[in-house]
Amino acid sequence: MDSPTPPADTPSAGPAPRRRPPSRLDRGVLDRTRAGSALEGLRWLGREPESRATLFYRAIRLVAQFLLFVVFRFRVQTSGQELLPRGGYLLIGAAHRGWMDPFLVIHALPVAPRAWFLGSGPSTLTARWREILIRRLGGLLPVWRGGVGIDAHVASARAVIANGGVFVQMPEGTVSGPPGRLVPFRAGSAVIALRTGAPIVPLAMAGTEELYVGRRMASRVLAPTSARALLGETWDGVLPPEGSREELALAKRLALRFEDLLGPVVAELQPGTVDPPAHPRRLRRKLTWLFLRPGRLDRDDPNDPNAPNAPSAPSAPSAPSAPA
What we know:
By secondary structure, the chain is an alpha/beta fold. It has eleven helices and seven strands.
């Protein structure tokens, strides 16, 4: 809710009021879902999700590495890669705090087998040229709000796993949230894990909530596990009917186990990514929002003028500033 604006002839007792930043999702893009024209998963891709790394993918990967690690000088410390299976598994990644997270996943994995992300269509496919490029490059199986339901994404996961690839999910479902701590996981990732029965590799990530030149980040691959191992004796191993309340209840329990695994590791990694307050943060705003539509993030302090999404200073005490 906006703070009230004081009259022009009354001095403000506190900081100048700010206009609430806009939502990060473009309503024009979401209209595609409402109109029924937004395709999801394999229907959008239009082909089998390959696990081999094509020459085009390898070239784009090299360009991305040059930009991220040479131009922007991002520094990523990764561990646990010796635990990775050969392929054909689910990867559960958290904490999801920015556009850099998929690149942290790719950085932790070998060039092949390919990673395929269950990712937001509204956040990613914001322009026609981006949609054409990403479809040709591969790696995304989009989901849309109000979409066709979980079955399409289970089918996507099964296709990726059958081809020996890596199906990546970030169960928080949002980049909002406090640094170093998780927000509750959504149950969809657990439903997919239950229905596919595939091995599960947890990946902890930290340091992507704000980006600037030379930013430190970290990731850690945890030991592969399975839904059966995570649920233990609390589950008899019998899958409930698909779409039933019993399946949803079991999925919620499994999602909590994902949180139990990843939460402490994310908290452990986060301090190693934090620079002192006096450390230069060049291009902070531009890099933090480079591939995101600026808007609200729950972790931001509205009274911090240096927050990545903080609006610019007001032009007069009697009027709120325009959003950044």
